[in-house]
Amino acid sequence: MNQTNDAALTAADAHHREFLVFSLGEEEYAVDILKVQEIRGYENVTRIANAPDFIKGVTNLRGVIVPIVDLRIKFHLDRVEYGGQTVVIVVNVEDRIVGIVVDGVSDVMTLSPDQIKPAPEFGVTLSSDFLSGLGSLEDRMLVLVDIDKLLTSDEMALVERVSE
Amino acid sequence: MDITDFYDTFFEEAEELLADMERYLLELDVEEPDAEQLNAIFRAAHSIKGGAGTFGFDVLQKTTHLFENLLDHARRGELALRRDIVDTFLETKDMLHDQLDAYRSGTEPDQEAFERICRTLQRLALEEIGQDLDGGPPAAGAVATPAPEPAPEAPPADPTPAGGDGCQLVVALLGVNDENRQLLVEELAQLGEVRGQSGDQARYEVTLETTASADDIEAVMCFIIEPEQIAVRARAAIGQEAPAAIADAPAEPVVAAKTTPPAKPRPVAKGAGESTSIRVAVDKVDQIINLVGELIITQSMLDQTVSELEGVTDGSLVNGMNLLQRNARDLQEAVMSIRMIPMDFVFSRFPRVVRETSGKLGKEIELVTEGESTELDKSLTERIIDPLTHLVRNSLDHGIEPPGAREAAGKPRTGRLVLSAKHQGGNILIEVIDDGAGLDRDRLLAKARENGLNVSDAMSDDEVWQLIFAPGFSTAREVTDVSGRGVGMDVVKRNIQGMGGHVQIMSTPGEGTTIRIVLPLTLAILDGMSIKVGGEMFILPLSAVLESLQPAREDLYAMAGDDVVLKVRDEYLPVVAVHEALDVPDARTELTETIAVIVQGEGRRYALLVDDLVGQQQVVVKNLETNYRKVPGVSAATILGDGSVALILDITGLHRLSRSKKEARRPVRAAHSLEALSDNPLETSS
C-alpha cells in the first residue's frame, strides 16, 4: 500500500513544474523556470529607433546584444516606472536571448498538474494563445505565460520572419 | 575506438589531396608534362585509394584505382597527354569529390555515375595505350577459375630467353595467403605471360614475361594486397636484344623506368613547403575573438575609471594601464589575423572556371592572378566566391571577344583576364579585368529603354555601367550556357552589398572592362567615428565619412516641402538629420548648430546632421540579428567602453529610411509645410 503511494507521488512529482513568479502592477504572472537564464537590474538600455514602444532597446549582456521588452507596456499597464525594484528576467527562447522588464520577481513556485487550470478566453490585450494556463495557489492566481509563443509571435516584432 | 572515428580525418585529407590534384592538373603543361607534377597527382590518387580501401569505401576505391593506373601510364610517358585527357582527369577528380561527399553524408555514391566514369577511363586506356585497365569490378568468372598448378621448375632453372619484345620480371609475393595468391597470379597472367612460379606462403615468386613495368604490376596488385607485400625485380635478361626492346616497347625495366626527363625549372612551387598549420573549428576561433573583444571592453572600462580617479599619482598604475592597453590591442590584432586567409583560397578555383568556360565558348583566354597573398576575413572569402565566379564568367562571355574578332580588331588572339586583389586602407579591392570589347553605352541604354527603365542619354558613364546590375538585364545577343539570361548580375550586386561592399565598373570601348569589388577587410572590427545626437551615441563607419563641417546658413537651401540641401563647394547635397530619421529626442534642431558629416554610401553622397563628433575608435561589430532583428538605418551594434551598446549606422539605409519617413509624412503635412515655408528661417532658393 505504502509502496503504491510512493510510486504515485514520484509520478506526480515528475509532472510538477516550477515557475518563476513575477509581478506586473498588481497582477502576478509566472514563467517556466527552465526558460529563465538569469535575473538582472534594468540599466543601460540603448534605444532602438522606429521599434514598437514596448521594445525598450538593446543591452549588453556580457558581450551579447540582447533586446529588452517591457511587458508592462505590452500589456497596457497604467503605471510604468523604472526604479530600484524594476528587474529584467533574461529568458532563452528558441536559441535567442531576450530580456523582459517586470515590476518585480517574488518567488519560485512548484505547481502540480491539478493546480494548473486552462486559461479562459481573454480580451484583446493578452490573447490566451500566449498563456499555458492559470495557476491557482490558495488565494493567489498566477497567469502562466507561454513565453516561447509570446516572444516569437508576430505582434512582438522581435523575430524576423523568413517570409519578410 | 571505432574506425568511424577516423572517417573525418580521411575525408579532410582526401579533400586536400583532391584540391592538390586539381591544382596540379590545371598547372600541367600537356606538351611537356612535369614529371614531378604527374607524380604528385598519382600519389594523391594512390593515397585516396589506400584510405578508401581501409574504410571500405568500395566505389571510391575502385574509381581511384582505375584513375591511378591511368595516371601511372601518364607519368611514365606511355600516355601522351592532351587537353581533353586532362579534362577527363578533372572530371574524374570531380567524380571522386562527389563520391567523397556521398560517403561523408553517409550515403552510397551514385552507381550510375561510377559506372560511367569507369567506362570513360577504360575507354581512354584502350584507345590511348591499347591496354585494358584491370581492376574495375572484378570479372565474375575470374575467382572461380582454379589457379594454375604451381610449376615445379624454379625460376633460375628457366633459361628461356624472352621471346618478343617483353622482358622478364620476377614478382615476389610476401606473406600472401593462397586465395589472394590465386587471384594475383590471374591478374599477372592478364598483364603478360607467366613463365614460372614457385615458393611458399612467406615468399612466392612468379616469373612474368610482360610489357608492363614493375610500377604497373605493383599498382595492380595494391588492389588486393599491401604494397609492402610485393617485390618486383627485373630478371637478368639473357641474350635479349635490349636496345631494340627499349626502342619500341614503352615499358622498360624497373631501373630505366625511373629515368625522368631532364630537370626543367618547375614553373610554380606553390604549396611545396611542409604545412605547419593546425586545423581548428571556426567557432573556436570566433569564441576567442569574442573573448578578446570582451577583454578590450573591460580594458577600456578600467581605463576610463582610472582616468576619472582624482589625484592619481601612482606612476606604476598609469604605466600598467598603458601596458595593458597595448597588450590588449596586440592580442586583438593577432587573434583577428587568425581569421584572415589569403585570397589564393578564392583565386585558386578560377583556373578551372576559366578553362571550362573558355572551352565552352571557344575562346582563348589567359588567366593572370595578382595579389593572391592579400588576406581577407574567412567569412568574406567564402561569400565572395559565388559573386566573383559570376563576374568572371560574365567577363569571359561578354567581355572578351572570340579569337577571330580579336584579330580583326588588331588584338592578340588570346584574351587576357586578370584577377587581382589588393588592400587599400581598411578595404580590399578585388578586380576582374578583361581586355575585351568594353561595355557598349548605346546598347546598354537601348536595352534599358526596352526594359522600361528610366534612362536618359545625359547619364554619366558610371550610371550607364551600373545598369548591368539591374534585374533582368542582359545585352548578350544570345543566351549561352554561360550567361545571358539576365539573372545573376543583380544578385551579385546584392550579395556584395550584403557583405558591406560595393561594385565599381570602369570600361573603355575596345580596350576592356574592369569590375572592382570593394569590401571591408573584416566584418568583425570596424573603424568607427563616434557621434552624439541628443543624449545618444552612434557609430559611423569611418570608411563612409568624407569630411565634416559646420553648415553655414547661406549654404543651406530649403527645397520642395521639407527637404533641405547643403551646398558644399560646388555640390548640392541632400541633408539627412539623424534625429529625424531615428527619432532621437532632445537633439539640436537649429541646423547651423549641428555638424554636417559628409558621407558616401553606394556612390551616393549626402550630409548627415549630428550634434557632436566624439572621436574615432575601432569597434567590435556585434550582430543585432542574433537575438533581435534587422533595424532600418542600423547595420549592427557595438559595445562602448562604459559597457553600453551603441548602434552602428548604415549610411545607405539611413538615407533610404529618411526618404521613406518623409514620404510617409508628406500627404499629411503638404499643406502645413507650405505655410511653414514662409516663416522658415532658411533662405529659399530663388
UniProtKB/TrEMBL annotation, chain A:
Residues 16-156 form the CheW-like domain. It is found in: Cytoplasm. One of its GO terms (biological process) is chemotaxis. CDD domains: CheW. One of its GO terms (cellular component) is cytosol. Gene3D superfamilies: CheA-289, Domain 4, SH3 Domains. The keyword Metal-binding does not apply. Keywords: Chemotaxis, Cytoplasm. SUPFAM superfamilies: CheW-like. PANTHER family: CHEMOTAXIS PROTEIN CHEW, CHEMOTAXIS SENSOR HISTIDINE KINASE-RELATED. This is Chemotaxis protein CheW. It comes from Halomonas heilongjiangensis.
UniProtKB/TrEMBL annotation, chain B:
InterPro entries: Bact_Chemotaxis_CheA (IPR051315), CheA-like_dim (IPR004105), CheA-like_homodim_sf (IPR037006), CheW-like_dom_sf (IPR036061), CheW-lke_dom (IPR002545), CheY-binding (IPR015162), CheY-binding_CheA (IPR035891), HATPase_C_sf (IPR036890). It comes from the Bacteria. It is found in: Cytoplasm. Residues 132-164 are annotated as: Disordered. CDD domains: CheA_reg (cd00731), HATPase_CheA-like (cd16916), HPT (cd00088). The modification Phosphohistidine is found at H46. Residues 525-660 form the CheW-like domain. GO terms for molecular function: ATP binding; phosphorelay sensor kinase activity. SMART domains: CheW, H-kinase_dim, HATPase_c, HPT. The keyword ATP-binding applies. Residues 1-103 form the HPt domain. One of its GO terms (cellular component) is cytoplasm. Keywords: ATP-binding, Chemotaxis, Cytoplasm, Kinase, Nucleotide-binding, Phosphoprotein, Transferase, Two-component regulatory system. Residues 147-159 have a biased composition (Pro residues). Signal peptide: none annotated. Involved in the transmission of sensory signals from the chemoreceptors to the flagellar motors. CheA is autophosphorylated; it can transfer its phosphate group to either CheB or CheY. This is Chemotaxis protein CheA. The lineage of its organism: Bacteria, Pseudomonadati, Pseudomonadota, Gammaproteobacteria, Oceanospirillales.
